[in-house]
Amino acid sequence: MTLYENLAEAIETRIRQGLYRPGDRLPSVRSLGIEHGVSLSTVQQAYRVLEDKRLAVPRAKSGYYVPETRQVPELPQATRGTQRPVDVSQWEQVLDLMSEEPSEHLTQFGRGRPDIDSPTLKPLTRALSRFGRQQSLSGLTYGSIQGNLQLREQIARLMLDSGCQTPASELIITNGCHEALSTAIRALCVPGDVVAVDSPAFHGVMQALKGFGLKALELPTDPIEGISLEALEMALEQWPIKVLQLTPSCNNPLGYSMPDHKKRALLALAQRYDLAIIEDDVYGDLAYRYPRPRTIKSFDEDGRVLLCSSFSKSIAPGLRTGWIAPGRYYDQVLHMKYMGSGPTATLPQLAMSAFIEGGHFDPHLRRMRHLYQRSRDQMIEWVGRYFPENAKASRPEGSFMLWVELEEGFDSLRLNKLLRPKGIQIAPGSIFSAAGKYRNCLRMSYAARPTPQIEAAVREVGEVAKTLLTSHD
Q: What are the angstrom distances between the C-alpha of 133 and each of 127, 354, 387, 432, 468?
């Protein structure tokens, strides 16, 4: 065993023997280093092992503690979907969420914003500045409708990690993943068509369906493995489904990652029914495990999968730099891209290409995966400590989104309204359903690093939720 593994085992033994009780502060990194004659990094590695075993939890500027006795919340129940295609609603609620500007006076658990304060992004800001100063002003000109070739080549290389061998010539740069998804939907569907989706689903896709006059069929979804293939096959027999749209890896908001065997089975089912699949992989690079999950696209041999992604979650949303690999639908998607927004802004593409080519992307991802995983564990522990007793929480395998389920009859819209005067915002569960289901659920971002202020905000959400439940009873 390594030094840090031996040290972790020694501390674990003390915890299990009751020398450190639930809620107790564990020895500092410095004191343990002196006691055992090891480096500070060795002690830190030992504490990470204990964190993974849920035997130690960090508190900002305070050290490590033994977790409280309350158990980790149970997983949410598998969802039931809808029995028939429905029109999408909830636009006013989505608009309320998206209209809020970032502010130091608002703890924004509701928006899907990554942490952009990492020092690993400094090479990107330098690249943006450098291209902005160039006398040729290359970053201020129109680019090609397909997008910058150098960036497409870099993205094609990155896609190898997900199992995809897609040449740069088959990629189209978009204004974020949101445009990639909406362009794909518009390229394949006409008003009145039916689109099958996982449930709960990304609210941006829901609103795209609403805007294009399409109907959504929500599929039963498991919080560990994703959509029910049996339910999808029954739906394909019953309804004229044009497209399936889902986020199979590090799902938003439920957190699941569909196993490879199920992705293969899904693709086989799509081939049998000649079904197109729009795959949202925007969170795939933020998977905590290595290698990252394979995409459905990586198994696709006849071009029926349209893969959509961006750097909005892995790097920064303000770049608005995404892409789509449309497969056999390339010409339709390119036409819709031209009709919609034309070429994507050039300057962010040049900067992102330089950032990746300079070898900065992978170190940034490694850092963020580690930070988000630690934040996930802390957020789940806080939900278990401060939320109502029967609260359930997802186990995201990547990204920075947590899905929390409370008892039937709870009103997360009411919860959000009561939290706003307190400077806190959450995402009500109903915006992730075409039919407005999941009102008893909420989504919370844990991209912000755990601090006493964030902990206090989570405690406030839990306390207000308890008050609502008491008044409901």
A: 10, 15, 51, 42, 55
User: Which tokens go with 289?
Assistant: 């495990």
- Give the C-alpha separation, 371 to 390, whole Å: 28
CB–CB of 425/106 below 8 Å?
yes
Distance CA 393, CA 54 (A): 16
Helix/strand/coil for 336: helix
Structure tokens at 433: 């359903």
Q: Helices 452-472 and 412-419: crossing angle, nearest 10°?
A: 130
Indicate the DSSP class of residue 445: E
Q: Is 418 exposed, middle or buried (0-12, 13-18, 19+ CB in 10 A)?
A: middle
User: For 271-281, how does the pLDDT look when each residue is reduced to its tens digit (9 = 90+)?
Assistant: 999 999 999 99
pLDDT digits 0-9 by tens, 249-294: 999 999 999 999 999 999 999 999 999 999 999 999 999 988 999 9
Q: How far is CA 42 from the centre of its chain?
A: 31
What average pLDDT does the segment 228-245 reach? 97
Banded model confidence at residue 23, pLDDT cuts 50, 70, 90: confident
What domains are there in the chain, each with its CATH number?
A: 3-65 (1.10.10.10), 86-116+363-472 (3.90.1150.10), 135-361 (3.40.640.10)
Using CA atoms, how far residue 18 sits from 11, 52, 53, 58, in Å, is: 11, 20, 17, 19
Q: How many CB atoms lie within 10 A of CB 328?
A: 13
Determine how many CB atoms are found less than 10 A away from the CB of residue 211.
Answer: 13
Q: Residue 468 and residue 473: Cα distance in Å, rounded?
A: 9
- Upstream peptide bond of 200 is cis (omega within 30 degrees of 0): yes
Is 80 exceeded by the pLDDT of residue 308? Answer: yes
Ramachandran area for residue 242 (φ above 0: left; ψ -120 to 50: alpha; else beta): alpha
Tokens of 177: 């993943």
Question: For position 139, what pLDDT does the model report?
Answer: 63
